[in-house]
Amino acid sequence: MKVGILGGGQLGRMLLQAGANYPVETHCMEKSEDCPAASLCHNFVTGDITDAGQVFSFGKDLDAVTIEIESVSVEGLRKLEEHGLKVFPSSAALEIIKNKVTQKEFYAANSIPTSEFVITRSIEEVRANQQLFPAVHKAAIGGYDGRGVQILNEIKDINQAFPGDAVLERKVDIEKELAIIVARNNAGDTAIYPPSEMIFDPVLNLLQYQLSPATLPEKVLWKAEAIALAVVKNLNSAGIFAVELFLDREENVWVNETAPRVHNSGHHTIEGNFSSQFDMLWRVMLNLPLGNTAKIMDTALVNLIGQTTETVDENSVQLRGLSKIDNAFVHLYGKKESRPGRKMGHVTILSNDRKELVFQARNVRNIWEGNI
Predict the structure, then answer these.
(1) Three-state SS string across the chain, please?
(2) Average pLDDT, the chain
(3) Which domains does the chain have, with CATH numbers?
(4) Which end of the chain, N or C, is surrounded by fewer C-beta atoms within 10 Å?
């Protein structure tokens, strides 16, 4: 079977690493051959994943294609589906999710709990909806890793709002931020991973570290799982989906956003669960039985965020320090250039002692940032 990956970043790289276990010929397209995934696929093509013609040309002789980023041309994927290819996720699901406006409208149309919102298309429309303040303003397209999001706590913050199409949503009084990975195959069967609790960097708005499984009351767990499954069921697409949720202080659960692909919040599954999110996606694409999502051990996952323009190599003090931690697994993404705020890798720590996980997560951050 010939499978193509549109996008060549770290998600493509880790997907290819898992794909080495299966009898599959892998193809990848990205704009630069210096991308993390280029050296791991059987065939690499330099191209523009946002161009419908190039997406179709890349995939037309393959059996299936998947994505590792939402910016892929929906029109190109739709043409591939019409050509007879299996596309994961479907072009219809990606079209809903890649635009924050249509994504929010999808939740509302399907009675999926999400924070109160309005669609704005100008600063004036933001100003006219001050009843939602304190609020979060999200650009309709192009946002990722904290970009395209502005917190508007007071009227004076309106000058930070987006002038074009965007979602203005009431800010949730958050107790915990959660993520649940859900797999769905072509027959409509699903597999759900234990939820993770995410802790974000308040400045960069990037995932700093997370703990899995999240510590939740049983009724909250059931509610969160039911909501995540409802999102995926209504998207009506095979693939892997990461449903990000807010738990508020009154134990209400709200959908924040959904990613129609393997996701940062699921990286811990490589070591922490019997079937990783990457292994699971291959099972879905190859029409194999869904894998076992049960945990092997509790995990902490720490993102390694670029601090300077220096790229970490095998001789770095950071890598040597991280490698000394028991039950820690270091993943560097092979990026040629480091810069502040860029994800350069991650570390997964295994332990059934929660205090040890939190301690080692902080230890990883201190080593990476050169504090020890």
Answers:
(1) CEEEEECCCHHHHHHHHHHCCCCCEEEEEECCCCCCCHHHCCEEEECCCCCHHHHHHHHCCCCEEEECCCCCCHHHHHHHHHCCCEEECCHHHHHHHCCHHHHHHHHHHCCCCECCEEEECCHHHHHCCHHHCCEEEEECCCCCCCCCEEEECCHHHHHHCCCCCEEEEECCCEEEEEEEEEEECCCCCEEECCCEEEEECCCCCCEEEEEECCCCCHHHHHHHHHHHHHHHHHHCCCEEEEEEEEEECCCCEEEEEEECCCCHHHCCHHHHECCCHHHHHHHHHCCCCCCCCCECCCEEEEEEECCCCCCCCCCCHHHHHHHCCCCEEEEECCCCCCCCCCEEEEEEEECCCHHHHHHHHHHHHHHHCCCC
(2) 94
(3) 2-88 (3.40.50.20), 116-170 (3.30.1490.20), 174-368 (3.30.470.20)
(4) C
